[in-house]
Amino acid sequence: MTRVVVVNAHGGPDVLSVEDWTVDAPGPGQARVRQTAIGLNFIDTYQRSGLYPLPLPFVAGNEAAGVVTAIGEGVTEVSVGDRVCYQGTPGAYADERLVPAAKLVPIPEGVDDKTAAAVLLKGLTAYYLLFKTWPVQKGETILWHAAAGGTGQIATQWARALGATVIGTAGGQEKVQIALDHGCHHAIDYKAEDFPALVKEFTGGRGVDVVYDGVGKATFEGSLDCLRPRGLLASFGNASGVVSVPDLGILARKGSLFVTRPTGTHYFARREDLLEGAKALFDAILAGAIKVEVGRTFALADAADAHRALEGRETTGSVVLLP
């Protein structure tokens, strides 16, 4: 038996239930992982609420690190005793679980389990956005919303290391300072300031080359106003609500703009792409280009409290659950 946090019905954090489930022996292509640290991400709340529905009941969570305790037939990607991490595989809120071996990433020496669990999903999100969705070039200017959050802190440090001018938004002066301390050249309090006007001021009226927006509904139109002509808005999250664009003509009126809604599912469908992104991420951490901040930790049994804190914008950096 293993302890898991289950969603039996869609809803708020109160629907998370701690239960004991059986863990089977790994089947072909599977590995059993004893988990040491579990990452908390907004997608966990979307799946719990039903915004991104999964068949009920399901074990919550999408990211963790741990040790391989058994492997199934045909597994060549990992061996028993390997330190590994994974992301994008629902069922992470557990002491022990089965994972497709092809989804497991080796944790390099010099990176601890808590850091690996805190960084892989968020860091790979930053990777595909900065290197694939819009490959950021030296001298470009970017805008990153929620720059004080877990993904934001990783991405803004990485973008600065690439030679970009980085503008971030955050909610409140404390978070603005965190954004400035983690890669942003300029940071804006979107709760108290007109962020499109300040972006235009910072860019001499030109606008930014690309906006990375994980906030969603509350920032969407303002983000369009921040772009230079033919710039790109990469909308990759819905923290404030789902975006709808009933009139595509708005993109023409605001400068022949591009909009995309990327997901890691499509960028990391192949194992070689997953390993390429993970290597780039861990190399950047080991080189000191990215410093990972675990802002808070919660016991696995307190996952509901962790969800409340995340959705209440009470966290900065990454949040980790400890089995």
TrEMBL record:
SUPFAM superfamilies: GroES-like, NAD(P)-binding Rossmann-fold domains. GO terms for cellular component: cytosol. One of its GO terms (molecular function) is zinc ion binding. InterPro entries: ADH-like_C (IPR013149), ADH-like_N (IPR013154), ER (IPR020843), GroES-like_sf (IPR011032), NAD(P)-bd_dom_sf (IPR036291), QOR-like (IPR047618), Quin_OxRdtase/zeta-crystal_CS (IPR002364). PROSITE patterns: QOR_ZETA_CRYSTAL. The keyword GTP-binding does not apply. The keyword NADP applies. Keywords: NADP, Oxidoreductase. Residues 11-321 form the Enoyl reductase (ER) domain. PANTHER family: QUINONE OXIDOREDUCTASE PIG3-RELATED (PTHR48106), QUINONE OXIDOREDUCTASE-RELATED (PTHR48106:SF13). This is NADPH2:quinone reductase.
